[in-house]
Amino acid sequence: MSEDASLRAAAYGQGRIFQSERDIQITEHHHHGGPNPVASRTGPASVRVALSTPLRAALQDREELREELLAAVDAGGGVHVLHGFGGCGKTAVARWLFDQLAPPRVALWVDASTELQLRAGMLAVAADRGASAEEVRAAQEGRRAAADLVWQRLDTSSEPWLLVLDNADDPKPLRDGWLRSSPRGTVLVTSRQAVDPAWTSVRARMHRVDVLPAAEAAQLLHDLAPGDHQPEATLRLAQRLGCHPLALTLAGGFLSQQLLESWTVEEYLERLGEDPVTLLDRGADLESGARERLSRTWHLSLDALTQRGLPEAMAILRLLSCWGHAPVPLAMLAPSAIVTVGTPGLTADRVESGLRGLLSASLVDLIEIPGADGRRVRCVTAHGLLLETIAADIPDERQTELYEAAATLVTRVEPSAGDGNTTRLVEPHLLAMLTNTISAGNVVSRARQVRDSYSIAGRWADALPFATGIVATGSAGTADDVMAIADSITLGEIIHQSGDFAGAEPVLKKALHAATARTEESPLLEADACIQLSLCYGKSGRDAAAAEQLLLRAAEIRRHVLGPTHADTVEPLYLRVSTLNLLGNYGESLRLAQQVTDLLPSLHGERSDEIAVRALLIVAATLQYACVAYNPVSPWRATTAAPIASSAVNIEAQGISWDLVWERAQAALDAHVTFYGADHPQTAGARHNLALVAWDCGDEQTAIAELRKTIEVRTAHLGSEHPWTIEASGRLAHCLGLRGETAEAAPLADQAYSDALRLLGPDHIISKRCAAARKAVNSAAPQDNG
């Protein structure tokens, strides 16, 4: 090394320099001098100014927390920690409190995001509170305990103070004496760490800062982007963003700062579906740091966890991002499950440590969800935007392996596992897997199980998203694949049972067309499609003749393939009974009803019990239909019976009486209660039929009681706007009106008719029945002659 080079070498503090000259002779230079001139200039420019991004809008939320913090400052003393995951507004609350202080109190602000900045900021606090330059220099050089100096000056401050330690996401340096309590002032710490020895050592008061309530989130959006925005759209945007303060701030900033084009809230909502994280980041200021950008704020916590030796925290979040945003039962993350799956970046023995790291960084929460049986299920939950951010960053080469592992974990929770609560909580994640092209094929079989279990239970609204998702996957085959056609038929059936009669028809027509093309290979598919499409026609009362032709075709196919006494062969027979009733052909319907009754004892097949129970109701309803058709005083005649066809026969000549009709209606209800249960929607249909029979038999109290129970069950299972619920409401109004109880009947009839007209149109048979009920109620109402 040349002499010139050696002269350019320097060392600071207690540093050493080793230089080699010619024959590798080592010369050691010791430099004992003053403090590093660079280090002496690393302190903050001020501790009297909040070193945070200014609030874009006045803080109007979290009133209870703000009042509590103000009261704590007034009382003096104590340490308060605002904790929560990134972007939830901890610093905003601290900034608000900082700005509220007025003399004689002093507000001091220290950036605690790194150990170096914490140390420099705290020494600046000591200087502000009266420490001499020599005392500060001694602390900087290690000749005096720096933390002791700071707290000595804070404890003897002539003015009460508030000390804010902002962004203390790594509380470890605070454990070295920097965090203490003092009777002269209040310490407020903001941190993403919910649990740390630093907090317990000073008995800190913990305050969780979470997302905002929906109304306050919408108000924040309005304050940030005032304008002619629809309040409903603003609320929807707030909810889409999970009411997350940083996301709301970024969205509001974007909407308020556009120069070249002006988006409405609705347009912003629509664009969010494409790439939410990138769009939200466009609302950040040019000089914004990582904490003010959604794409980076949570990665700061994850980077810190990786530095702490917890890289599996990211692997767990990636796994969670594959599923839905609903709470995830801990059973899905059990090490015993992970060990057999092979989740990328995650081993069974590191799940616990990774999850605890995420909890400590406030990236996830543990919650308990009560189940129907009283037991509580422990779940882990994360904010939806966090999961979207993580999902967007999964490397392409890891996605297939990750999503397949996530799908396997979902399907491990079996429906028959005995824990119905956990099974129910897994279902949103199963749906999320269905929507992903990578994982859909792995979960479609399990999705069918869930779909069918809900359908059997009469919970068609719950079955519908699974049925829709299964069809969307194409059943892992071509468009005309046999299983895909079967799934489409099931979808049409569930849509119809859910109350969307018009929506079911095109689905079933398409399925019937595909099934007909495969008749030679799978003839029963065509029969299934015919039956479901016939129900769309028949139950609407719009095209009973077309329904009859479809049922004849289904009966022909099933008789040929399954034989005359198979339960599935009898199904189109009893459905034809209903169709013939709608056509007014009571003679033929009674003849066919007797044929079905004769076949019931010899039924066989998997669905024999189910078909027998349903057939009993159809037979009972047929007797009621026929009696009503020949009863000129029955209130149901104009709304139930079609014009009597020429083939009709004399009811009395066949020995049919109201006593027999009552007996059959009661037997059908009893059979439904035994097979389905008292509160099943199918049982409600039998109860509805008994109510109509009871009224014609003169038992008005039973009729009204059974109709009320029918409405109760249908409302609970199907909803108040399901056509079958509306129909029962119209029937109840009709009965009440005939009894003169118009005060209750009139609004009930008006609502039923209005709902039927809006949902079904004027020509639907249910709309006509509700119209007749409304007319009867209005006729019974006392006239106002004034």
Structure description:
- The protein is an alpha/beta fold.
- The protein is built from 35 helices and 10 strands.
- The strands form 3 sheets. It has a 5-stranded parallel sheet, sandwiched between helices. Strands 8-10-9 form a 3-stranded antiparallel sheet, with helices on one face.
- The chain is elongated and about 115 Å long.
- Residues 1-40 and 644-648 have low confidence and may be disordered.
Task: Give the helix/strand layout.
Elements (H helix, E strand, L loop, with lengths): L2 H6 L7 E6 L3 E6 L32 H13 L3 E5 L6 H11 L5 E6 L3 H14 L4 H8 L5 H10 L5 E6 L18 E7 L5 H5 L3 E4 L5 H11 L6 H10 L4 H12 L8 H8 L3 H6 L12 H14 L4 H11 L5 E2 L5 H4 L12 H10 L4 E6 L5 E6 L2 H9 L3 H17 L7 H15 L5 H17 L3 H13 L9 H16 L3 H17 L5 H18 L3 H19 L4 H16 L3 H14 L8 H22 L7 H4 L17 H19 L4 H16 L3 H19 L4 H16 L3 H19 L4 H16 L6
Parallel strand pairs: 3-6, 3-7, 4-5, 5-6
Antiparallel strand pairs: 1-2, 8-10, 9-10
Helix pairs in contact: 4-5, 4-6, 8-9, 8-10, 9-11, 14-16, 14-17, 14-18, 18-19, 18-20, 19-20, 20-21, 21-22, 22-23, 22-24, 23-24, 24-25, 24-26, 25-26, 26-27, 26-28, 27-28, 28-30, 28-31, 30-31, 31-32, 32-33, 33-34, 33-35, 34-35
What are the key terms here?
7% strand, 10 strands, disordered N terminus, 786 residues, alpha/beta
Poorly predicted parts: 1-40, 644-648
* Nearest-integer average pLDDT: 86
Fraction of residues in helix: 55-70%
- Distance between the amino and carboxyl termini: 118 Å
Give the C-alpha Rg.
37 Å
**Main sheet specs:** 5 strands, parallel
- The oligomeric state of the chains shown is single chain
Tell me the overall shape: elongated
Number of helices: 35
Order the strands across the largest sheet as they lie in space.
4-5-6-3-7
Query: Which percent range describes the beta-strand content?
Result: 5-15%
Number of strands: 10
Structural class, by secondary structure, is alpha/beta
